[in-house]
Amino acid sequence: MTDEFLPYSLPHIDDDDINAVVEVLKSGWLTTGPKCEEFESKLAEYIGCKYVVAVSSCSAALHLACIGFDIGPGDEVITTPLTFAATINQILHVGAKPIFVDIDINTGLIDIDKIEEKITPKTKALLPVHYAGMSCDLDGLKILAEKYSIRIIEDAAHAIGTQYKGKKVGADSDAACYSFYPIKNMTTIEGGAIATNSETVSNLARKYALHGISKDAWKRYRAEGTWFYEVLHCGFKYNLTDVQAALGLQQLKKLDSMIAIRNSYAEIYYDRLRDLKDLVLPPREKNGVHAYQLFVVRVQEGAKYTRNDFIDKLRSRGIGTTVNFIPVPLHPYYRDTLSLAIDDYPVTNQFYSQCVSLPLYPKMSIADVNRVCDTIFEIMS
Ligand SMILES: *Cc1c(COP(=O)(O)O)cnc(C)c1O
Question: How far is Cα 346 from Cα 119, in angstroms, rounded to an integer?
Fold first, then answer.
C-alpha cells in the first residue's frame, strides 16, 4: 500500500486534450469563436435539447437563466439549503428572494413533498440542484411548475451526463445549468453552459453573456463581419474562450466513458462498504443514470467516530475527503441578510453533520478505491 496522499478529486486531462488546446493557441483565434460554436452544437446534441449557450461558469449560466426568465425584485425562487454559494448568489444578483425547502435525508435532494407549501403568488421559479449527480424527481417538479405556472431552473453543476427516465438532464428543461470547473464531471478549466428549449432564453443569454451586444459580435473581427454592432442590454462578460471550448470538445468525447468509470468505482464502494454499520451509503438511482459527481456517505449517529474525527483519521492516513455542502443558513452573509436559522432546516442540518464525500474520479485507480475501503475498515472496525 502506498502512503502517497490521495486527493478527494482531480481533473482527468490526456494528450488529446493538451493537443487540442495547443492547436487553438497556435491558430490565431483565442477567444469566443468557431470552437465555442462547435462546442455548443455538440453539447446540444449530447444533451438532446434545442439550444446551448456556453459561458464562463455555471454561476454565470444560473445568472443568465434568471435574467432569461425575467426574475427580479419582488420575485421568489424556491431552492435547497444544501448547495454551493453560486446557486444562491445568482438569485440575489437579480434582486429576487431565495426561499429554502428542506432536503430528503436519503438523497440530499430538495424534498419535493415540502415544496408546495412554500409556493406563493410571488414564486417565479424552482431552482433544484441535482445533488451529487443524481437527478431530482423532474416529473414531480414539472407537475408543480405547471400547476402554478412557474419555471424550473436546474442547477446541473453535478449533472452533465446524468439521465432521468431515458433522457439526459437538460433535454426537456426550461433551463439547466452545467459546470465545467476542474473537479466536475468534465472540465474546460473554468466554464459552464446553459441548456434550454426556449429560443427567447437562449437569445437573451447569448446577448447578456457578451455585454448585451447584438448577436455574433465575435464575427465583426472576421472577413464575413462588419464593424457595426449595437448594445441592446446592460450585459456581462460571461463568454467562454475558444481555448476552453477546444478542451471541452475533447472532454465531451470522453464524458460517457468517464461516467462509466465513476459508476464502476461507486459499485466497488457499494460492494465493499455495504456491511459497515457505521456508514450509510448513498441511494442508488432507479430512474436513470447517476453521474456520481460525488459519492457521499453519512456517518451514523453512535458510530465509532464522529464525522469530523472520521475525516481527520482519513486525512492522517493519506485520504482526502470533503463536505458537500456547508448549508446556506450557516454562512454568516446569508444567515444575517436573509434571517435564516439552521433549525428551520433540521434534515439539512442532520445531513450536514453526517456527510463525507469520498474520493471518486476517473484518474483514480481501482487500487486507490480499494485503498479507501481498506482505510475506512481500519478506522471504523
Ligand atoms: C460547482 C457548483 C456550482 C458552480 O459552478 P461554477 O462553474 O464554478 O460556477 C454551482 N452549483 C453547484 C451545486 C456546484 O457544485
Answer: 20
pLDDT digits (tens, 9 = 90+) for 220-231: 777 777 888 899
Q: Is 184 a catalytic residue?
A: yes
Q: Which of 208, 275, 193, 247 is nearest to 16 (CA)?
A: 247
Residue where the block lists cell 473581427: 221
Closest ligand 1 atom to residue 129 Cα is 13
Nearest CA to ligand 1 atom 14: 157
Residue among 55, 58, 153 whose CB has most ligand 1 atoms within 8 A, to mutate:
58
Burial pattern 180-196, b for ≥16 Cβ within 10 A else e, equals bbbebbbbbbbbbbbbb
- Rounded to an integer, what distance in angstroms lies between the CA atom of residue 234 and that of residue 374? 55
- The span from the CA of 242 to the CA of 321, in Å, is 33
pLDDT, tens digit (0-9, with 9 covering 90-100), for 65-117: 999 999 999 999 999 999 999 999 999 999 999 999 999 999 999 999 999 99
Q: C-alpha cell of 208?
A: 447578456
8 Å CB contact between 132 and 296: yes
User: CA-to-CA distance for 110 and 81, rounded, in angstroms?
Assistant: 8
What is the predicted pLDDT for the residue at 228? 87
* Ligand 1 center–CA 58 separation, angstroms: 5
